[in-house]
Fold this protein.
Amino acid sequence: MFFLYNLERQVTLHPSYFGRNMHELVTGKLLKDVEGTCTGRYFIITIMDTFNISEGRILPGSGLAEFTVGYRAVVWRPFKGETVDAIVTSVNKVGFFADAGPLPLFVSSHLIPPDIKFDPNATPPQFTNNEDSVIEVGTHVRVKLIGTRAEVGGMYAIASIKEDYLGCLQGS
Amino acid sequence: MGKQLSLGTKLKYPITISKLLKRPGDEIKRKEPILQYKFTWMQEVGDPFGDHWEEEQTTIADWDSPADGTIKEWKIKEGAVVQNDLKFVDIEETCPHSVQFQGMCGMCGKDMTEMSWASASDDTDRAKINMIHDQTALRVSEEEASRAEEELQRRLLKNRKLSLVVDLDQTIIHACIEPTVGDWQDDPNSPNHEAVKDVAKFQLKDEGVRGLASACWYYIKMRPGLKEFLSKVAELYELHVYTMGTRAYAMNIAKIVDPDRKLFGDRIISRDENGNITTKSLARLFPVDTKMVVIIDDRADVWPKNRPNLIKVVPYDFFLGIGDINSSFLPKREELPKMTPALKKKSTTKTDTDETEATKKGETTTSDTGATKAVDQENPEAPEADGSRISALEELVRMGGGDDQALRLEQAAEQEKFLEKQLTERPLLHMQEKLDQEEDEEAAVTEETKNGDTAHEHTHHKHNLLKDDDVELTYLEKHLTQLHKAFYDDYDRALVSAHGGRVAQLKPGHNKKVSIKDESADLRIVPDIGNVMPRLKAKTLAGCTIVMSGLVPLQADIMRTEIAIQALSFGAEIQTKVNRKVTHLVASTSRTRTTKVRQAAKYEHIKIVNQQWLLNSMSKWEKEDETPYLVQIHEQDKIREDGFNSSAPSSIHDSDDSSEGFVSEEEGDSIPASQEEVAEDLEGVMPEAIEEGHSPVDDIKGFDWGEIDDELASFMGSDDDESDNESGAESVASDVSIRSRASNRVIPQKRKVGDTTDDENSGDESTLAKKQRIANSRSTGLKTVKTPNSMQSESSLPTPGPTGDEDGEDDAVDQIPTGDDDDDDDDDPFGDDLEADLMAEFEREEEESKVGDGG
């Protein structure tokens, strides 16, 4: 689910950047540091705006200036039970992998409807029910997350398409 | 899924079960108590006055379930006393957690890394097998793996296919990053243009390799006939790629080899997913069962566990001296020095494309005066010497032990270094330059010798370094087809017999049941490639007893060397000593003067062949005709032979005698066991030798001569041994010039007339004659034929032969003291002069005494 979230961050600036456009530099650095990262619980998708850039404080010893910046960001936190759209990246006999934006997820063959079977002889290999559902690399699928786990710098999810309205997205 | 829970070892036994909190059929949750028990223990108690005593305490505790599910059956009763750990309850688990991705169960989505007081074991341990080609994060349990594999086998059986794991580098392609290749490709005038014009190339931009090698072009040469090979083989096999290159590299190669992704699909595994830096393992892809898997790889040592499934392919070495760009971190290839003849072929004759021509060439070369041979043999040295190979010392260290626990980074770094070296040093360019240079020299030599044959041989004005004449794939295709057939023949037979049995059994039963049973029976009767292939291979050299000479370092245990293991797998028997049972002596082309060769030469039935015979036989899976591979007995031995034939028949006896004294003496102090064999030798050889050129009288006198020879031997060093091989030497096409030289040397001996007439003295005389001849030949060797050989030999010639091609090299190996090859020609260089003097002296004395006798 997406959220607008107020966050705060310490940004340091090298003395060589001290000057008139310091605030822009700080904002720029913030964008560079933060956008697209995963904190372990959510992904920071984009920063809407910054406010409240504090006065810089020189860090003793290094000479860097530290600013405390408040900002508003769009974050995405995948929840268990959430339905997301994803693109298939790899298909094998145990299941298939897909990316829902920054989130890699895995759909095991146990969580695929029994009529959709793995066909290793097809090129490329695919899951198919020999009708309208063909899941191969690049297919858009709608999946339901049934488990997520965070590790340093990334999140992973287990998903299912064994429910109504899940699976291959037609005409996309 | 049924599972049994056990109490665990951490409880304070004995315990008494006081209450079962759940009944069969009840649902249980993780961390939920399902059982109450009590136990007694001693507590140490003290009072304020410092007294201590122990009191018995009874504690009641809960036992919490480590898993979710439903209880099926209790195996203990309330009130029972349990003495130690046991499985006490059957439960039906909600989820077996048999597929896990990044620490999550792929079936229920639970976090598997979570630990609690209740968990008995780490849940991540339940799914440990990594069997997916392109993923390392996904792991499955054993049951899941065998299920998947069973499915795979069923499918393969249905399609009548097998699995084939294909290595890339040097097996189906050869890659290099030498920029010279690009230059040659662009330059239509280059002698190598023809060969490299269809070389594919790609760039790996996003790979971890930094520095110089980061943006280089990879040049990929497909093995000749690859496309046809793969498309043919794909009908019989499901193909997998298993390479030690990186993933990006593997994908790029696959794109070149298989543009429509029809052959390999996604079944590509690279070193990024391999999980082991130095070895490949079928268990990575087929964790449960490898009976329907065949491997083709140019290296056998990286498959330590899967040898029965492996077809070892002759490495494809198109870009000479480059080797495998993705194996710089592997232990050095432990390969027999086989490239010598192959290179010889490659670097001298341009048009040689097929085996027969090559061997023909081999014959002409060796029977020439040696001029061409010399040139030939220089060439193979070149790539060896300045190719980007690792130094000899490093090689030894590497072979010495498994030093490769290098991490992936280290691996990448090493490869980077290797690649950079290739980029900066441009070994190919140097080799071509050298080749051109050699060519000029060669031309000069040819003119000098005025040998029509050789001149004809080398009329090609411009030599190209790279040859596109590899035929391995045709054999390989044949083997794979053959193997496939054998496998399914076996399978069909087994199927029929299984059917027969079952049909008889289940005749009244209904059909459906039978078919179900069929299915399950199917897999049990599937033959194992690991049995089928060795059986096929073993036919190849069955009945051959092979001794190797000059191919394996002496200190190495021959049975563990690559070549021996391979030969064994082809049904040959390997011996370390030459004896009567031996059928083939495989000698190195560069070292044809070892003791084993000489010993073997005594037996007529032993075929002395070069290593190419063995290699070709193993490559073709059929015993090659030995004739083209017969090793030319050394020139000196040829001389001897001529000597016997033309003028000194009696000397055969003599040489035998002397060798007897010698061999036994030598062997005696090295390995006592060998004496038996020597004795055998003599039994086998003596009669023949005598028959050849002796009157029976010799036998009577033989004893004395032996003694005398011994005496001589102690003076002369072990020189006499050289004569060993003459007695039974293979008939060799010898050059006229040699013959004439040889006879020249024999003629001056006045003894000659006496030889034929006076049997009594013959032994003596011929010994001397031999010495004399050797002495002569030494001196003549310096002034006669001017060949590159002679230049080489003068410098380090240990034996008094006229042309001791590779003797220097020979010795280097022979001298290693532990081996079974004796070092007979080693001590010579020192005693040469002395020897000559002595001989002259001896002869004079002998003659005098003779004259005295006669008078």
Notes: The mean pLDDT of chain A is 90. The first strand of chain A starts at residue 2 and ends at 13.
